Queue: 4 jobs
Job 1
Amino acid sequence: MEIHMALFTLNINGASQEVDVDPSTPLLYVLRNDLDLKGPRFGCGLAQCGACTAIIDGVAVRTCVTPVSAVTGNITTLEGLAQNGQLDPLQQAWIDEQVPQCGYCQNGQILNARVLLDNNPNPTDAEIRQGMEGVLCRCMSYYRIQAAIKRAASNSTASYIDAMASDTQEATS
Amino acid sequence: MRRKPSPFALPRIIEEAIRASIPATSRRDFLKTSGALVISAIPASKGLAQAASESAGPYPDPDYLELDTWIVIHPDNTATFFVGKTDGGQGTGTAFRQMMCDELDIAYDMTSLVMGTTDITPDQGGSGGSDAIEVDGWPMRRTAAEARRVLLELASDELGAPVAELTARKGIVSLTGNPSRSVTYADLIGGRRFDVSLTGRNINATTGIAEVKSAQDLEVIGQSIPRYDIPAKVDGSLTWAVDVKIPGMVHARNIRPPMAGAQLASVDESSVSGMPGFVAVVRRANYLAVVFEREEQAINGARALRAEWTPPAEAPFPSSDNLYDFIRSQEPVASSDPIVSGNPEAVLSSSEHVVEAEYEVPFQGHTAIGPAHAMADPSDGQMTIYSNDMKSYGLRNGVAEFLNMPRDKVRVVYMDGPQVYGRTAADDAGFEAAYLAHELGRPVRVQWMRDEETAWDTKGPAFTFKLRGSLDADNTLNALEYEARCLDYNHLWYNDPETVLIAQLMGIRSDEPARGSSPTPAVQYGIEHQRLAGHVVSLPMIWETPLRCGNLRDPNGPQVTYAFESFIDEMAAAANADPIEFRLKMIEESAEDARFRKVRSLATLRQAAETFGWDSRPSPNPNVAETSGPIASGRGVAYTHRNGTVVAVIAEAQVNKDTGRIFVNRLVCAHDCGLVINPANLKYTVECGMLHGLSRALWEEVKFDEEKVTSVDWASHPSMRHSDTPESIEVVIVNGDPNPDRPDMPHYGAGEASHKPMIAAIANAVYDATGVRLRRIPFRPDLVLEELLAQS
């Protein structure tokens, strides 16, 4: 069988990277296996869960069904979200709200939330639910994810420890 | 069975730690002088995998009866703890550190933790049963207390003062009242061994001479310390088990039988051998896999491979549409001795007020968000498996037996992965990777695909339940019969080399299939006449079938509690009683009080009612008839316990009577798990446990025809989504102990406990809202609408 390889130049997290792969290769495997990125993850290969998400020119893209040959534009993965050593406000909110359980899906949750807030900086609860609807979590960390998005959107400065102090009083009987 | 570990074995990592602490004596930098920094940096670098691949074995078990196995003090006055547990994302790792810090008297941020890697941490069995804090936390506390005792004795010599006059705090021992005379832990032992032996007939009993602190003296325990694993999970720096790369590695994909029980008649290797990157087709009996150089090539190869399968002579199972009729029609293959008190039959037959109900629960899966995977490296005649399997030690033992390798030539490096709430397909993938690596002599990464995971992962068993109850003249539940039938025959244990999927497909059969279990409910009700019975039934085909059962988050608790606590609600409604008051009365009648569960149950239920703002009235909501518009609202309660933990949940649900859609808008959970290690962390784990229950209640069902599972992705196997998230979740931590300040307050588990009663609470809320009882899971809109029409 003939091997069809081709050179592609990808702009990823601000750097230009060249890969030599079969043009039909899903971007996910190029990111993970050729470029050693760990943010985008395999979840379904069917564009159903969002674990593989990367942001391409401001759009949340399911890399598991996107052939590398179809990709033009600037790709941002979870690794590229922090700027100048500063976590993205959403990442900080994720830490402040202690969002993940296992955390495997959180790449997709955070990047989809980033695109949501880029397009709608102050979403209502309903808009958050709608905007995040296609990103699945099987530890069901949804309540915390939504809290983190609200925190990042409101740019709250309350610290994690402050927040804890108010909700850890024990009820005794 | 288990080989006794050599009493002199020192774990490699500790040896490394000690050697590395003496400059220029070690090439390996697994644990450098500053253990805390290096360990926390491991996920961000190639550290763990690289360090592992550089050590050629053998890999003897660390000796849990050596203090050095558990704790290393470094020359920079930091400490590393080594525990044989894993953390599926419930924050148990952070909790272990807190427990050990408290007993050792060292600051939390001066410590690090290594978990679940078979040759460097003692074998605590990995995780399971939400018992990490309840059971495994104790040897951790005791060994840390023992280390503190030894350090105080060393300090006594150093400072020339009796131990009684010394104070240990944050890694420094000083003369009480004279902090200028002090010595650090590092000065006393940094980089050197304790050389102290422990005692204990098993690892859970491990102890030194020292006693643990009383609850009042604990300072790190009880703090909401943020989880140490979260930052690397949100900035993309963590190396997960899926990320491990080893030079020379290849990618494998399995090809599963297209129908259960099919025999592989022939494989046409030439259909893929010309494809780019082809390495091998591996076949043994009905196990079939392709191996390619690149991942996408393996996926394409698995799709392209031509194979002929011979269907089984008879249907392996009924279709899911006929599942419950099938279960009811079968003779049980096993029955537990019924729990009987009084004479329920006589009371029921003479009672004028008898209620009967049947409940049905489908198979439900783990269906991890990341399908099962593992990497196996056969270098140097050893076998190293990188896996997120929550029972890493069992995986090591099972693979060694399966491959007929000495146990100390096999090790499992535990790494983070997608959720592990029991016996997941991580077990199966670990065996498959090891087998293929063994066959090919190259590092092999196995990755299951989505349809494979959703169809073939282990399932929580399907059930039918039949309950009868009667009320006396005072509307007290005086007799109850509970009979469960559970489709659980040949229940899979963890990492069992005779029942793991690859073994089954290779034709291996255990002599006697596991009977499975059909448990009785965990409640604290005093019911005078009772008969609780459970039976296990079997599918026609029990081998090489995707309908294979294994533990799924409190194995059968959610199913049993759904039926039982729904029925208690039916009895409360029949008695025209408030559902909480009805339960409280029965708890008060209970004679049993192990672990003060009676008084703690009362406290927990009352706390849930108070937090919710529960007004006393019977269900259904009297406003049901007056509700205008399609939305009906109601509240439902359910209560249970899991080991030592007592939990009560209240759900408030809105039911759209036109569409059948249920929205659970509010949840309250009162949770008594004794001494709380990390309140925030506990709260979030409780929250997610509840929502996992919500997902199982509303959406999850394994569907199949008479050949194969047909629910194979997130469209055909729906799961909870963002739009299902309640608007409000309140978790209240209860301490219902009769002596809430007891110095020996035990710490119980979390996760499974709050998961367990959720389905019942939602069903009861729907009844309160609509007067319609949902007696079959899941409560998907189409099925709910059917019930609304049928029962109205």
Job 2
Amino acid sequence: MSAHHAIVFLLTGAASGLVGAMLGIGGGVFLVPLLTLAFGVPIRAAVAASLVSVIATATASSTVNLDRGLVNMRLAMALEVATSVGGLGGGLAASLLTSQQLFLIFGATLATMGALMVMRSGRRNVIADTSVDPGRLGGRLQEGDTTYVYRLRRMPLALGASLVAGAVSGLLGLGGGIIKVPVLNTFCGVPIRVAAATSAFMIGVTAAASVFVYFSRGDVVLPLASAVALGALAGSVVGARLGQRVEARALKIFMAVVLLVVGVRMALEAL
Amino acid sequence: MTDGEGGRLERLEDTIELALTVGLGVSTVLLLVGLIAGSDTALRWGVLLLMLTPVARVAVVTVGLALERDWTFTLVSFFVLAILLAGIWVGVRR
């Protein structure tokens, strides 16, 4: 790999890490299409590099988010059960669906989620009354001088979404945050910042479930994966900090636009 | 959530943060050295260490929760750890 290529891959990783950490999605959903379509990297090598980079993004942003008390650990642990089972199931089911069907289902799901997020972006999930009991899987969130409380709603839906997110990760080599964050925020009562931080905390584990298989197959091209991961590391540290400063509503709209664009693009890929 | 429970969870979060920072720090140095010096050995260990960092994180959480005698979440965390170890086992066996 030439120095020129290394710099291009570093910058590609940095861009996906930045957006990924802001939204708690890891960035694999941008990285795989970018590496394959723009740089002609073979799909398996792109997926493997993406998984390594997702781990880097998740780990780096989690150190920032843990410090800020944004990660809901109990919720993350409970949902990790579903994502890891989903990851395993996704890997096994990969042979049952054609990639066209996969792209179409995935694209349609994302675009629908994006549209729903836009429609519900004005709703706030937090309660300013701190005497309200957040429950075992809810929590508290500090924003400026105000402490808010949020309660988890529709746990079965959160578990279902995590199962699907894990399956998608196993099938397509993503972190799966692009499914979890919108569902947790839009339907389960989790504030967008907490949803993003908790998702980022989980996706490293989701990616770690399948990355060793890719590594042993020789799909991890070391210079490529390293350059992308280093870029993602730098980008995600900035992204996690930036996510704090941006208004919650702006973050939701940004996420919705990302969902719509990626969803439509993936659906078109299938046609 | 009582104050005591919140404090314990906070301490566990500090330990997790430390594990993540160490894993990330060492792998970053290895990846940088590997890319600059063109050493595949440094790159291989850097990538492997990065891949193992989330596994170490889950192991830390499992032990931390067991020490706190929070058996429900210890079991939950142990289950996730078992899935990850199964993934590594499948990788090693190939």
Job 3
Amino acid sequence: MQRDGHSAARVRTIPLIAPSVGALLVWMIVPLAMTLWFSFRRYNLLNPMLTGFAGINNYRFLLRDPALPSILVITVVLVLAVMVLTISLGVVLAAIFNTGFPGQGIARVLMISPFFVMPTVSALIWKNLLMHPVNGLFAGVLRSLGFPVIDWFSSFPLISIIIIVTWEWLPFAFLILLTALQSLDEEQLEAARLDGAGTIAVFFFIQVPHMARAISVLVMMETIFLLSIFAEIYVTTAGGPGIATTNLPFLIYQRALLAFNIGGASAAGVIAIILANVLAALLIRTVARRLDV
Amino acid sequence: MSGVKTWLAGGVAWLIAIVNFFPIFWMLLASLKTEVEAVQTPPLFIFHPTLANYRDIFALQGYAGYAFNSIAISVLATLLMLLVAVPAAFAMAFYPGRYTRDILLWMLSTKMLPAVGVLVPIYLLSRDLGLLDTRTALVIIDFLSNLPIGVWMLFTFFRETPKDIIEASRIDGANVGQTILYVLLPLVAPGIASTALLSVILCWNEAFWSLNLTAHNAAPLTAFIASFSAPQGLFWARLSAASVLAIAPILAFGWISQRQLVRGLTFGAVK
Amino acid sequence: MTAVAIRGVRKLFGQIEVLHSVDVEIDDGDFVILVGPSGCGKTTLLRMIAGLEDVSHGEILIGGRRVNDIAPKARDVAMVFQNYALYPHMTVRQNMSFALRLARTARVEIDKRVERAAEILGLGQLLDRSPRQLSGGQRQRVAMGRALVRNPQVFLFDEPLSNLDAKLRVQMRAEIKELQQRLKTTTVYVTHDQIEAMTMADKIVIMRNGYVEQTGAPLDLYDHPANQFVAGFLGSPSMNFLDGEIAEGAMIAADGLRWPLPESFAAQPLSGRKVVYGIRPEHITITEAGIPARVQLVEPTGSETQVVLQASGSTLIAASRERIIAQPGTILHIMVDPARAHLFDPESGKRLAA
């Protein structure tokens, strides 16, 4: 008997999925291809006469830039510092919040709120209201205690950025870890306590392993988002002083939209993409294995 | 856990929560001060609150236009996302095929592309298509950036609906559109709502593209607030009021949907 | 007239063949039950009739029309799902009328049909409730009502009683059978429960591992099973089996004891052949003399007594209307009704015809 060419039973899923896949395919392929293409072109918006194939000159120029190593270091330090801070603080806070103290709901709302504050507002709160060397709250407090005032963005520019970004992303880590913790089977905890495990033992041997999956998801998501940190730098330090807070996104922004050097910016873009994928490649595989599809 | 330990944990947790929330609270205070009080040193905790800043924002700054941009972009991008993501999630949740898993993981992987890596081409494309400083450009970009999250989130919600019910509606004579409209959507309304909410939150707070692709016409609140960074020290109170207004609705949305947010932001890996 | 015909139907999931060339003819108005252990392919076959699964090879006809390429909604079938699959956001009335509303049936007609189905099923008071507010049995009725209002050519039931408690299951069993006899609508019903199959069906299709083992009226299958699987599957407690060899007009068991053969076999030259001897519990009687058997367990169910025995190296169950009192370990004697004994080929499992 002939196998049927089309079938009544099968719902035709292609027309349902195609718009999503198509849109994302275009969204991914077209700009990626263009970035790659431009990165090998001589292309400056200020100088229309400058055209043609640049070979690897854009890359050579970029890689020879004495600032590049420190920019890469700044980019990675920013990602790693915030990731380590948010996840380690998040794990501890999640364990504390999981105890079910009075007013837990409201305290949790206070904890997660910074995540919903738009990055530009967060940056301005910290820059003006808190860290401003003259009128900021921190300066006021230090002064009234008789300490010298700190000019945060001049003296500790990268640390200041890390503090701001950590404040924004701690709620994210906290919320996800707390949710993971709350899904821990109560019986398992009771069994552990009957086996004589104290609070500390429960935390390290039961709760932390249970959060492993959530932590791996966090690492992946934060890698993606933190590699694109831009607004906070744009609003507070504009990459300075010098290049003390210039990360790859900000470099690209400067090259492309301030210097109009499309070729150079594209080469930096390619490097950002490679960096993101190197950092995330292993992580996404870990996560993929844990997704039950 | 013993009572003492609970109280101790509660005390520590409350302390951290208050410290953590303090910057937002401090901004709220600043928004109720006069400009002079706002920059006063030492910082002022007790003062006579005023709503003048909130009045001024609407009167002076063209705030309404930026707010409108934020609302229009968030809502349109979210609707567009749902329109495209719901059928895809429906197909993959109820009629999984050999490639469903691969498609889902591929969608996830599109988030691996850092926005900054494609800033140049997106900027040039927008310029060449005449979309620089238009809401259209941001709607399209927000729609595309949130599409993978939307598909994933809906997928995990849909899968909790028994397939029987979908099949029953097929036997009852419903086509795919009718099944989605009359059977699935009413059943997963809470899931749809939280997916929409997450999308609105992400669109609303999106700063990278807003800062790079908009100027005056299409700038949403994120870009508007950033424009205050230049003349620093001048309008702290007014800036604070504008900021409070800009974040208030999203804070509320976030509080409402915190649990579902986790699912969306972790692609269903944590519920 | 044939209402549903399944001809040479095979089903492949990827490389795995779950149905191997199945043929079933279902007459108009018949109540046919597909029964078999889990994984036998019965539900897959039902879903293929419904149009929820593709037919890989072969064809399915409903009312003489080939439906392989016809969408479920155009097949004129209604289905009752195992978990009822009621629309939780609709009232009972909306659940029952959904198909008719989709088909743009006139309001008056919808109301008439829903009222009538509700009356038949005793759902009159519940029409404006939501499924959440109903008990398991009531949900079951709503699921049936949803099928009923459509007045389809064929009803399909997928293990509809498996979620009900034992008592309700017996009650619904009777109700469904009674309803089907009243409506005379062709019905295909899937279950793994052989008692449901025996009590409800006009015709049983016994399946295993994607093959149809035997098709026929319940008592025919019970009395004349085609093979050892069918013999063992139908009946509770199930048929006893002993291994042995034919000699001198009897079966000689492993321990040398003689088990009597049906008369029809006595004349045949089967001597020396290895066989499996099958005898149902109710065809073993406990007597003063006969084959000795050691009592292992006595299980009184009230209406009858089941005795688990050790005889000829095998465990047997005897069922008796009489109340038997015996201590485990004591030796009883049993007699079998030779006319009711079956012989099976140990290799193929096929019943040896007399």
Job 4
Amino acid sequence: MTFRDWYRVDRLPTIYCAGCGNGTVINCALHAVDAMAWKQEETVFVSGIGCSSRAPGYIATDSLHTTHGRALAFATGVKLARPDLHVVIFTGDGDLAAIGGNHFIHACRRNVDMTVICMNNWIYGMTGGQGSPTTPVGALSTTTPYGSAEGVFDISELAVAAGANHVARWTSYHVKELTRAIQTGLETPGFSLIEVLVQCPTGYGRRNRLREVSDMIEFLKTHAMLLSRYRKMVAEGKPVPADIFTVGEFVRRNRPAMGVPP
Amino acid sequence: MTRTEFLQGNVACAEGALAAGCRFFAGYPITPSTEVAEHLALKLPKRKGVFIQMEDEIASMAAVIGASWTGARAMTATSGPGFSLMMEHIGYAAMTETPCVVVNIQRGGPSTGQPTLGAQGDMLQCRFGSHGDYSVIALSPASVQEMFSLTVAAFNLADRFRVPVFLMADEIIGHMRERFAIPDEVEVVPRRPLAKGVLPFAAGPDGVPGFPVFGAGHGVHVTGLTHDERGYPRATSPDLHQELVMRLTHKVESARRDIADYQVVNPGARRVFISYGAPARTVQQVLHDRKDPTVGHLQLRVVWPFPEFALGEFPEAEVFLFPEMNLGQMAREAERHTDVPLVPIPRLGGELHTPAMLGKALEAHP
């Protein structure tokens, strides 16, 4: 088998816009799943609502496309009732951090054995580009026409604080690192969160001076700072540029977990 | 050997769930339903079942649906405020045809209302509370024994019709202690599995598709979006949407006679009480005291789909009297099915109608 065999080919092409980063993330996820040598009949993909959450519909396994923000609660039911099934969730910044914020922190706290891939594009894409809990301060969206005035959630730090066993952040540019991080998540018992910063040229880029797809990918490439480097700079008291974001592995630990197969 | 117990209704409900083979319970504490969860927290782990207390009722209902797709008989229990939160996923369960049982031990509303006192104010919410058109099944127990037996029935109906089934009890029945019998075995009607070569959402002659359990290689895609027989989203086809929603509604409504469960007392009566849940007890007392063949009683155990044909069991009826612990929610439904005058007898505040109150209603209609 290759990663291609995991696609539900009769549903392709996807609904994603030209230049969207979500397809890259699905590719990386399926490469990682394939590397685990899991069987399709033992794997369940779950999602909420939004662009990212359409992903399970393109994968040839049992899949549950649920309600906005609640994927983790559905997945908890699947995993606890059948711990022998592998459960992977696709979600986004609005789905996970806004309407699903409470389910998110409690799933981390319970440390339920599942892998969550969050496509963070700083925007509500499906509804046409509204501000989300990760929209950067000052960024334009249809609901922040004068620039977002709200602070942002750091989704990965939130997962670490809430108790997840494994947390990593990469971008749609870092396909190798991302694939490896997802595979680590799949291997780690307990709750794993892989946050992926993805370009949304349609909903975000064109309103925020990143008009071309390549502009957004260039942004992801040039503004990503390795967590280890960031921590070293902070420890040494060196000034850290304000517009960078950290990438890398935030935590890998072995807290007691729920739903781990015997 | 049948075992006899003297326990409260909520515990009888939990025992009914166990007898029916419930393997998964997710819930959130709320008065006056909490004993259902507490009893299952105690018992389920010892029977290879799963009990989990979720972060809220939205999540509880979600976990129940997730568990149900793995084939488990799954249930939650709540009361008014939690029931309101569950509406989102009750609609999801209806759309995705996920069997599940929701117990509502009703208390006084709206809002936080009267947490410790009984009511029947959620009878229309359980039928119409989520957005869009769909159909569900609702049962209403009037005794501790019925808390047990109707919980078992709820699981069988949920699996047969693949809909959310509600046990619409109330605080009075939930907290009342009575003697009841637990049989060694109860009738369990399992889900019909998806046959080989059949599309996952292609309905059988009864309007219900076979169940493609997760983990069996069906590769089924389940979505709350309007979907075709493959389960694939097709949200912009007017014909497909109409066909799907008509089927979801029709599969229950067309089986109304089959689903119906009611008791008729004095079918020749001129004056007939209709009741369900706790008020049935007052009516029983009135009939017992009066021993008057001109007074009849229709006790509904299945409330939705409403068995309008049951009104015809009383051909001599000159008036229907309908005591409810709400402002006439089911009376309105009954009224639209009969030309016989129908008098709602509403009672709010948490206390049951007294026999004297119902006696007064009889005297007003001699």
